[in-house]
Write a structure and sequence with these properties.
The protein is mainly alpha-helical.
Length: 90
C-alpha cells in the first residue's frame, strides 16, 4: 500500500514538476520585466497599461484581425511587439 502511494506521488511530480518550474520562471520574468520598465522610465508607478504598451500591442493585433491577414503565431508575436515598442517610443 505504501509503495503504491509513493509511485503515484512520483508520477504526479513527473507531470506537475515541469509546469511548476515553468510557472516559477514566468513569474520571475514578469517581475524582471516590470522592474526594467520602471527603471528605464524612472517612474516607480510605471506599468504597461499606464505607458500604453498594452494598448499599442492590442491596436496592432486588432488591425491584423480586421484586415484578415494570416501571419501565424510568430508573426503575431512580432507585430504585437512592434506595436508595444511603438507605443513606448511615443
Amino acid at each position: 500500500m505504501e509503495l503504491d502511494t509513493h509511485r503515484r506521488l512520483g508520477r504526479s511530480w513527473v507531470w506537475r514538476g515541469p509546469r511548476l518550474l515553468a510557472a516559477i520562471l514566468a513569474g520571475i520574468c514578469l517581475g524582471l520585466a516590470g522592474s526594467l520598465i520602471q527603471r528605464m522610465t524612472g517612474n516607480v508607478m510605471a506599468s504597461p497599461e499606464l505607458l500604453g504598451i498594452s494598448g499599442g500591442a492590442a491596436l496592432v493585433m486588432v488591425l491584423i484581425v480586421l484586415t484578415g491577414t494570416e501571419i501565424g503565431r510568430a508573426g503575431q508575436l512580432g507585430a504585437a511587439t512592434l506595436g508595444a515598442a511603438g507605443a513606448l517610443a511615443c
